[in-house]
Amino acid sequence: MLGTQRAESAGRPRSRGDVVLEISGLSVDYGFTDDAVRAVVDASLTLRRGEVLGLAGESGSGKSTLAYAVTRLLRAPGVITAGEVRFHGAEGDYDLLAADAQTMRELRWSQLAVVFQSAMNALNPVLTIGSQLTDVLKAHRPDMNRQARKERAAELLNLVGITADRLSSFPHELSGGMRQRVMIAMALALEPEVLIMDEPTTALDVVTQREILEELVALRDRLGFAVLFITHDLSLLIELADTIAVMYAGRVVEYAPAAALFRSPRHPYTAGLLNSFPGLHGERVAMTGIPGSPPDLRHVPEGCPFNPRCRYAMDVCRQDAPVLISLPSAGRRAASCWLQAEGFIAPEPLALPEPTTVGARIVARPGALAAELPGSDPQDPYIEAAGSAL
Ligand code: SF4
User: Which residue from 91, 182, 209, 256 could staple onto 333, CB 3.0 to 4.6 Å apart?
Assistant: First the structure.
């Protein structure tokens, strides 16, 4: 059973849609001196029960650091300098940044599980899949005997589409996709309430990626856990996630329901990312992408960190950093850009992607995005084609 040191409100009934993880003003530095790298700056996110929250951004934008900080797996010289992370679990409320090591050990895996990027590195190469699965159960479920652990391990493999005869296989005997499935099965072994997935399908081909993400969505629907899904691939999140947070230079720069973010991005960086995907139809055009590179976090530009790459940059952008401004919307929306502040007007509308552009990479639920977009046809032949072509 979980430790009770910081458990509050234990036994409170929970329902889908309740907030399960609350991150407020989280800041993380690498280093302790004045020239420390500010890897995450004042990040605030909310994850609801049963929700998939996507965290997108280029490499080095602070996504993984944020996940490591939330689970207290950050290693020196990483240091959490500000903020609060609250986990509202079925067995109680926890202040994760203040919880002692024993409480964190009990919460990790049983309540908050993490799937890391490289399954081959995360699995022990000299132990069979079965031993690794039963080891998790042995450590966290002392009430289970050997036979029950073996049966549960087989059940977990089945859950992710692998037959039980693979329990005796070593990791090198499985394909990359199967190893990643095993990692997901291990993460789900204790039925956690929150699953944090850090680029779980990045190294896989698109067909395997599609299969795994479909399974993930089906498992989420069946078991009801919430997912914090970290990836650099915004097109994947548009289809998979309910809500998306976009990070740049350690800051959350836009936060919106997935369909709204796709339909009308409010930050030039998000618009640039969305325009970096080739269209499925129409004229062939040269891809421009976003000019420049993400900043060196030791020397972040004055004002808005995105200003050297932003085609809309104004004088104010080079002097003062914008704050995350809540925007009027049916869902939770916010953007950190002076263009969203009163009194500032964009010199031209943000360039929007072609409605079916992202369909080229839609993987999890073909047609779902089209169904959510006003005026778009769920039977759109391009989105249908994108779904069936994979
Ligand atoms: Fe561009 Fe200015 Fe908005 Fe930054 S604040 S994204 S520089 S318009």
Answer: 256
Percent of the chain whose predicted confidence (pLDDT) is above 70: 81
From the CA of 269, give the closest atom in ligand 1.
Answer: 6
Two tokens at 333? 């929306």
Q: Is 322 in the pocket of ligand 1 (CB under 6 A)?
A: yes
3-state secondary structure of 196: strand
> Rounded to the nearest 5°, which phi and psi values hold at 175?
-75, 170
Cβ–ligand 1 contact at 265 (below 6 Å):
no
- Gap from CA of 316 to ligand 1 centroid (Å): 9
pTM above 0.85, yes or no: no
pLDDT of residue 371: 41
Largest distance between two CA atoms of the chain: 68
Instruction: Tell the residue nearest (CA) to atom 7 of ligand 1.
Output: 307
Q: Which has the higher per-residue pLDDT, 64 or 12?
A: 64
322 Cα–ligand 1 center, Å:
8
The end-to-end CA distance of the chain, in Å, is 44
Q: What is the mean pLDDT of residues 69-84?
A: 93
Provide the 3-class DSSP secondary structure of residue 95.
Answer: strand
DSSP 138: H
Pocket test residue of 309, 317, 327, 336 for ligand 1, highest count of atoms within 8 A of CB: 317
pLDDT in tens, 255-267: 999 988 988 899 9
SS3 55: strand
